[in-house]
Design a protein that fits this description.
The complex is a heterodimer of chains A (581) and B (386). Chain A has 581 residues and is mostly helical. Chain A is built from 24 helices and no strands. The longest helix of chain A is centred in the first third of the chain and has 34 residues. Chain A is globular, with a radius of gyration of 26 Å. Classes of the chains: A mainly alpha (581), B alpha+beta (386).
């Protein structure tokens, strides 16, 4: 729309107009500056720190290449890199295979109850990574893992059947936890594929296999590659699994090395920064390829966003097998992990399930956790941070999206990229960068909730941006032009027309940000201080202290609350959605 | 014309608009567009898509900023490149109906219509707002539906609501951007009358943009036909249809037969001259000064090509020739004949009662006043029908 650019010309020409346009330009200016601040400051200071020695009260920072030397001189470096890649690639491929199988079953077959399976298999997305990891330790650790103990007593040996403290274990846990993400990505890919493309191949005389190989796979290729790359970035950023499963047995990846470098004494911020920059380079490279790919993908007519209803394949009797696959999957990712947490939360001291242990069931752990005064504060902090960051993000990105979509201000696409920049920041690296900056630039936020709010807003800004952008693109420009013709200024138009029309995306994005920020651990772990713990930090501390029972009790309650919040949000969303339609 | 003495409410002078397209090239959307609209009249910008009519309308609205020119409404200048005046759209106080209607889906009918009264610096009491809104809603027969969700309205109702919303603040000028194009054919015809009634009843000064010539002819006091950014002819609907100034207008407004011709004799009676065509010599109407041997193009509307199985009576026997029926199409209300006469193919529109079979000989008669000479600027072409 030409108004914005024309107005800017007018305001430049005639200072008298400034007063009238004040609000709009003030809001634009603040939004752009905030985004630039959030996205660029951590990046710049991370780079700066990686080339300098730490600044202390007595010694000023000096330029050095020592950090990179320390990071790259040892033979360990190669192992670190290989470990990281092996772990991330393994977890991404595993998640992708599981997710694609499920997506195919769900989209293209007549498996019974698939709608129900679809809803249930998304549950792991709600479970915080640290709880999922802990529950798999309780299931498959060589010493206390229920699976090992059950099999050992069954076969009457003391062989260790499964060992979660291994590269395979790490890949298994992380891949499983993020398989629902792959499931969603591939469902979308299958869904947006025009079935007539396959049908016309069938009509040309191709066999089902030929169709799958020469049409379906070829068409889905960009989506497949994009999904794998997203999963790879996600896995290389993963902190909880490598920290809990890898560190005890010395399998290091970048994230866990950064954590270790900070928590060594004296802490080696420079070395951590060098690792952080390396990790950032990897994610940036992959994110760049992924965005190039999706840019190219637009020439594939399969990615139309149009919802097709593909013909479901009749599997005959085999559909019970696919249903069984779904049930097995649900048992592994939802039922077993949750049950083991429930079981351990009802014990006094952690013990494996036996008939004898059944008699000692107690709710003591819940009492201990609830009586703990620091928990109340952590819950309050978590609430404040997640609601606060979700609200700030959605309002901020709605203005950014307006500028990008509805104005012709030069450089607006740069703004879009800037706000998407934090996408490539692993949580731990972002936390590190923000820590470095506010340690060096003392404006009184270090050690307060504000620094965590800054971290959360930065980290989840791109997600809010996506939600708002999709909604903003759907608002026909005549809807806001007609408000201008009705005499409404920018403020009134934005508040009374644009925001209400954005509502579906705004609310969906808000809920998403609330959920992910309540689970947030890797960004907070370097930034919290006594008094500003959040719930996920309390869980982390309980793990460090070996209080598995209390941890389980807190975890069960945490999952319960998160789950009910999602249910409630979906219910409310449906009601709102109906009204919007 | 009588209108020239009336007070003109909207005056557009020397309007040039350009904008960059996706590839960064400059698109010249409006070129030296100038016209005046007298108070209470409906003025139509008619032209094919991409001719600059919507850009011109949006420049009047203030949604687009022209490159140069001047736009004045009454005594108020809303845009002038000479003095650097540009009034923001929300300060212009014009009513506008958009092609998509732009009904806000999150508001009900009443809230949509009340919005213009609640924003800006207007300070109206709740009762005043209610009274004004209900008055305008009843004018478009939506007062019974005031509490309905805007999304539950039919296409025609949405169109009327968009009109009500544009009228509620009693604008000096009403801008309509293809307001009927989203309706189905039947409804479009009904809404056309409805729109005309409202416009005439409230004497709304209106600028109407359309690509539909029948809409333009039915509604307007005056029409400006646009092509490639320029106004090619301004006139009353009758003038535009009956005396098209050039080939583009004749072709775009209605259907017509073109005949290449050479002037043989001038001054044959009132505004008549004789021309030689592939059909033989014809006596035709001409308004411009011409001389012998000038190359011209003759336009004859299909409904003015009278055909009969018998030779016409000698009384009206001007411009008669013989041909054969080449093809015909039954269209319900009338019958279209394609007639081959010598080298030419003529399109004729006849009453369905005429049943001459294909291949039969047929007589063609064209009254001289219906054969219009249009400017010779048009590229020479063979006789054809669109």
């Amino acid at each position: 729309m030409g108004v914005a650019s024309s107005l800017s010309d007018a305001s430049a020409a005639r200072p008298g107009l400034w007063q009238r346009l004040d609000l709009k330009w003030a809001v634009f200016g603040v939004a752009v500056m905030l985004v630039a601040w959030l996205a660029l400051v951590p990046l710049v200071f991370l780079l700066w720190q990686s080339f300098y020695t730490p600044q202390t009260a007595t010694v000023a920072a000096e330029f050095t290449l020592g950090n990179y030397y320390a990071a790259y001189s040892s033979f360990e470096t190669l192992r670190l890199f290989l470990n990281s890649v092996q772990f991330a690639a393994g977890a991404a491929l595993f998640a992708f295979l599981v997710g694609t199988l499920l997506a195919w079953i769900n989209e293209r077959t007549n498996t019974p109850f698939k709608a129900l399976f679809f809803g249930l298999s998304l549950i792991p997305l709600v479970i915080p990574s640290i709880l999922f990891t802990v529950s798999w330790i309780l299931l498959a650790s060589p010493k206390i893992g229920i699976i090992n103990l059950a099999l050992q007593s069954w076969f009457n040996t003391d062989t260790v059947f499964v060992n979660i403290y291994s590269m395979t274990g790490m890949i298994w846990v992380d891949g499983l936890h993020y398989s629902p993400m792959a499931f969603l990505l591939m469902t979308a890919a299958f869904h947006s594929m025009d079935p007539s493309l396959e049908e016309s191949a069938l009509m040309s005389g191709a066999s089902v296999l030929q169709v799958a190989r020469r049409i379906t796979l070829k068409l889905a290729w960009p989506a497949v590659l994009a999904a794998v790359l997203i999963l790879f970035v996600r896995a290389v950023e993963s902190f909880e699994v490598p920290a809990l499963l890898g560190l005890p047995v010395g399998i290091q990846v970048y994230t866990s090395s950064i954590y270790e470098a900070i928590h060594r004494y004296p802490s080696q911020i420079g070395l951590a920064s060098a690792y952080g920059v390396t990790l950032l380079l990897i994610t940036a490279l992959v994110v760049y390829f992924q965005s190039r790919l999706s840019g190219q993908g637009s020439r594939y007519s399969t990615v139309t966003g149009k919802g097709f209803r593909p013909r479901a394949m009749d599997l005959g009797k085999w559909r019970y097998l696919t249903a069984a696959v779904f049930i097995l999957y649900l048992v592994i990712v939802v039922v077993l992990p949750f049950l083991v947490l429930v079981w351990s939360s009802l014990q006094k001291f952690y013990s494996v399930p036996t008939v004898a242990a059944l008699k000692t069931l107690t709710l003591d752990a819940y009492r201990t956790v609830l009586d703990n005064p620091s928990l109340g504060r952590a819950v309050w902090n978590s609430l404040l941070l997640s609601l606060g960051s979700a609200t700030v993000i959605m309002l901020l990105t709605s203005v950014i999206c307006w500028i990008v979509v509805k104005t012709r201000i030069p450089g607006r696409s740069l703004l879009d990229n800037l706000a998407s920049l934090p996408l490539m920041f692993p949580g731990l690296v972002l936390g590190l960068a923000i820590m470095i900056f506010y340690l060096n630039v003392d404006i009184g936020v270090y050690g307060t909730l504000w620094i965590m709010l800054i971290a959360y807003v930065t980290r989840f800004l791109p997600y809010g941006l996506r939600y708002n952008m999709i909604s903003m693109l759907q608002i026909h420009k005549e809807l806001d032009e007609s408000a201008a013709m009705s005499g409404a200024g920018w403020g009134a138009t934005f508040w009374r027309i644009v925001l209400p029309l954005l509502k579906p995306g705004l609310i969906a994005g808000w809920i998403y940000v609330v959920i992910v920020s309540v689970r947030e651990l890797s960004g907070s772990i370097l930034l919290y201080s006594p008094g500003t713990e959040v719930v996920s930090i309390v869980i982390w501390e309980l793990w460090q202290n070996g209080q598995y029972v209390e941890l389980s009790a807190l975890g069960v309650m945490f999952i319960g609350v998160l789950f009910s919040f999602v249910m409630l949000a979906q219910f409310a969303g449906k009601k709102l959605g109906i009204k919007e339609a | 014309m009588a209108q020239e003495q009336e007070q003109s409410l909207l005056s557009v002078k020397g309007l040039y608009t350009e904008y960059p397209n996706e590839r960064g090239q400059t698109v010249k959307a409006a070129q030296d567009v100038a016209f005046e609209v007298p108070e209470g009249k409906l003025f139509t910008l008619l032209g094919p898509s991409g001719c600059g009519k919507t850009t011109t309308l949006r420049s009047i609205a203030g949604l687009e900023r022209p490159k140069s020119g001047e736009i004045r409404v009454g005594a108020r200048t809303v845009y002038s490149s000479a003095t650097g005046v540009f009034v923001a759209p929300n300060k212009r106080n014009f009513g506008m109906v958009f092609q998509s209607y732009a009904i806000w889906p999150h508001m009900n009918v009443f809230q949509n219509a009340a919005f213009p009264l609640q924003v800006g610096n207007k300070r109206l009491s709740k009762n005043e707002v209610r009274e004004k809104v209900m008055r305008v809603l009843s004018a478009v027969a939506l007062d019974q539906l005031a509490d309905r969700e805007a999304t539950k309205l039919s296409g025609g109702q949405q169109q009327r609501l968009a009109l009500a919303r544009a009228l509620v603040m009693e604008p000096p000028l009403l801008l309509l951007d293809e307001p009927l194009s989203n309706l189905d054919a039947k409804l479009r015809e009904r809404m056309r009358f409805e729109l005309k009634r409202l416009q005439r009843e409230f004497k709304l000064t209106t600028v109407y943009v359309t690509h539909d010539q029948s809409e333009a002819l039915a509604l307007s006091h005056e029409i400006a036909v646009m092509n490639e950014g320029r106004i090619v002819q301004i006139g009353s609907p009758r003038e535009i249809y009956q005396r098209p100034r050039n080939r583009f207008v004749a072709d775009f407004v209605g259907t017509t037969n073109f005949l290449d011709a050479t002037v043989v004799a001038i001054g044959v009676g009132d505004d008549r001259c004789r021309v030689a065509t592939a059909l033989g010599e014809l006596e035709v109407q001409c308004f411009d000064a011409l001389s012998r041997n000038d190359k011209v193009v003759i336009s004859v509307r299909p409904e003015d090509v009278e055909i009969s199985e018998q030779p016409p009576e000698s009384g009206g026997g001007y411009n008669v020739c013989r041909g054969t029926v080449d093809a015909k199409a039954f269209l319900g209300e009338h019958l279209d004949f394609q007639i081959k006469a010598g080298e030419c193919v003529l399109l004729a529109r006849a009453h369905p009662s005429l049943r001459s079979p294909v291949g039969d000989e047929i007589y063609v008669q064209m009254k001289p006043e219906k054969c219009i000479i249009i400017s010779a600027d048009a590229a020479p072409g063979r006789a054809r029908f669109p």
